[in-house]
Amino acid sequence: MTIKPSEWAVLAATLAYIAGFSVVFLSTGNREFLWYIITLLILVALVGVGQRKAAFPAAILWSLSLWGFAHMAGGGTPVGDTVLYGHVILPILQNGEIVILRYDQLVHFYGFAITAWLLWHLMRRHFPEMDGSVSIYAFAILGSMGLGALNEMIEFAAVIMFPQTNVGGYVNTALDLAFNAAGAITAMVVAAIIAPAPAKST
User: Fold this and answer.
1) Three-state secondary structure along 47-91?
2) How confident is the model over 93-123, as pLDDT tens digits?
3) Which of 12, 14, 34, 31 is nearest to 22 (CA)?
4) pTM of the prediction?
5) Residues paired with residue 95 on neighbouring β-strands, in sequence order
């Protein structure tokens, strides 16, 4: 399989920050995020294996890589007595356990917006007859939300495996899912505006 120079660049940058954060997590004894690094490496491999058929453009590949970096930075960057994931970026709402807007929520919004974009790209490429239909946007949104639920299951596995995590409880999970959905919907609204289906010939 021939790898394009642009793909090598994304791969090199991604592996570089994975290696860097691996050192950080090992030095601090953060075993939870070593679990996430394994998951991230699996995702990198899946994207690499499927790239020839999927033909993800460089913009999607870089966006995925940035999501991975944001996730690693969230768990590996100290902020006060917590890490970046727990940091409140903008105190829009603070009511008991419900705290908006945290860095974690921005990453969820961004990440599952990118996921919806990726799924929309795949359906547009492999099922061109769906292009511009309500279904292609709905399936991308629902697929992204489903993968977001899978992400929460991975986080739940981390809670079971490691005694101390920064995952949070039920309210945090519900907020994560809400921001996943908001990101996916936003991405598809943008896609519908900037990349409408080509006009059909009569």
Assistant:
1) HHHHHHHHCCCHHHHHHHHHHHHHHHHHHHCEECCEEHHHCEEEE
2) 888 778 888 999 999 999 999 999 999 999 9
3) 34
4) 0.85
5) 98
